[in-house]
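Lab notes, practical 5.
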Amino acid sequence: MAKQLDLEEQEQLDEIKHFWREYGNLITWALIAVFGAIAAWNGWQYWQNSQAAQASAMYDEIERAAQAGETDRLERAFSDLKERFGRTAYAQQAGLLAATTLHAKGKTDAAKAALGWVAEKSPDEGYQAVARLRLASVLMDAKAYDDALKQLAGDFPAEFAPLAADRRGDVLSLQGKKAEAKAEYEKAYQAFDERSDYRRLIEVKLVALGGDPKQLAAPAAAGAKS
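Output from the prediction step:
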C-alpha cells in the first residue's frame, strides 16, 4: 500500500515538473508583469501626490507674497511654479491671483502676461474663460479696446457666455458703438436667471442705452404660458 502511494506521489510530482517545464516561464513572466504594474501604479500615485504637495507649497508662497504686496517675490515664485508644475490647477489659480495683485500694483504688462498664460496654457476651459474675461478687463482699462474684443471673441463655456456678452457690451459702449453694445447687453440679460443680481446690473446698462428689458422678458413669459 505504501509503495502504491509512493508511485502515485511520484507520478504527481512528475506531472508537476512537466507542467512547470512547459508553463513555468510563462507564469513567472505573467507574475512579474502583474506585480510590476502594481508597483508602477503605486509609484505613479506617489509621484502625483508628491507633485501636488510641492505645487501646493509653492502656491502658498505665492499667496503670501500677494498678501504682502511683494510683486518681485510673487513673480519669481509664479515663474518657478509655471516651469515645474504648469499643468496643475495650482498653477492656473496662481496665475489668476498673481494677475490681480500685479494689476493692483500698477504692473499691467506683468498682469496681462499672467492672464495670457492661463488663457493659453490651462487645460481647464473654466480657468481659460476666467483668464480671458479678466484680461479683457485689463485691456479695457488700458483703452486697448480692439485687443479686449479679441479676448472676448470665439466660444465660451455656457456658464461664462453671458459674462462674455456683458463684457463685450462694456467694450463696445466705451467705443461709442451703442447699438452693438445694446445687442450684447440684451444677449446677456436674456441668458441670466431673472433672480440674478447681475441681471439687474445689466438692466441698468440697457436702460441707459435706451433699451427696454421688459420687452425682452415678455417673449420668454409668453412662451412659458404656451
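Observations recorded by the TA: Confidence is low (pLDDT under 50) at residues 1-5, 39-44, 218-226. Residues 2-68 form the longest helix (67 residues).
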